[in-house]
Amino acid sequence: MQHRRLGTSAIVVSAICMGTMTFGSQADEATALRVLDRSFDAGIDFYDTAETYPVPPDVKWAGRTEDIVGKWLKTKPRDAIIVATKVSGPSHTWFKSPKRSGMTALDRRNILTAVDESLTRLGTDYIDLYQTHWPDHDTAYDETLDVLDELVRAGKVRITGCSNETAWGLMKSLATAERLGTARYQTIQNNFSLNHRRFEDELAQVCRKEGVSLIPYSPIAGGVLATKYSNGARPAKARFSHYLELGGRQAAMAQRFVNDRSITAAERFAAVAADHGLDPVTLAVAWSKQHDFVASTIVGVSTEAQLDPIFAAADLILPDSALDAINAVSREIPYPMG
């Protein structure tokens, strides 16, 4: 398993990170624990969760995923595992968190409350990477970065990162940290896949120039790149099948991932994979981590059967012929997710 540094920090992680957002909903506890064990045995030492997980976000089970991860952590040497989790962003913007009665914010009270609750659920006295789950661009970054720096100095958090940020927001946060003399964001966790390459437009340059690492999520585009939604299929128990039934925000999200252009692109990428003797999932994960600004690609599963094609990408370097064919599809079908 390849290993890479998170930003300019002292932390080095496996090039694949196991995401846990399905644990406690799509994947029951027993399945989740088996997935975690198999991932560890495969050489994955980096695990990502959040206080709002599992998905879809719901007050009745928010925090359950951290409970499961915490139970598993007790079976492994703590210093052998790099744990990442997230504090909810503000609930008055695009999404209302199920935590703290839907009154979350990136202020001192919310962050201090959230980190202590996460530490308790995880059963540990420190978090390796603590991330803001989504930003608030109308609120000063000063308070957020100041309290996160306090957590670093107190030893509750080793390094900090952001998620779902823009190029402006990341640069603003870095400039603020430099002005205040606080710990800065070492990572950014954003959507990045063969079907969603917008990170390359501006944010990749910020990461390269400022020494921030992308830890991309949804490298398989929520299963679309596995071609599970091709030909109008709506697989039972699949996340976007469920989201389309739920309506509202979840359905809107699903329609962004599952549409005619994204499915056509996925089928074209699957053909590239076949030409190179690869599973389409293996191709997608390998491509995601084969960028100079990426430290570790976050994958997610709901069954053990989904693990093998992911593990097959661990040390895979795609040849130029595959990269050229991928780029040709992206030129013909640019931005299939909009």
Residues in β-strands, percent: 5-15%
- In the predicted model, the low-confidence regions spanning at least 5 consecutive residues are none
Could you name the CATH class of the domain at 3-189? Alpha Beta
Compute the CA-based radius of gyration: 19 Å
Can you give the helix content as a percent range? 40-55%
Descriptive account of the structure:
- The protein is of the alpha/beta class and 338 residues long.
- The protein has a domain at 3-189: NADP-dependent oxidoreductase domain (TIM Barrel, Alpha-Beta Barrel), CATH 3.20.20.100.
- Helix content is 40%, strand content 12%.
- It contains 12 helices and 10 strands.
- It has helices at 29-41, 64-73, 108-122, 141-154, 167-180, 203-210, 239-246, 248-257, 260-275, 280-289, 307-311, 320-332; strands at 3-5, 12-14, 16-19, 46-48, 82-87, 127-132, 157-163, 185-189, 213-214, 297-299.
- α7 (239-246) packs across α8, α9 (260-275) packs across α10 (280-289) and α9 (260-275) packs antiparallel against α12 (320-332).
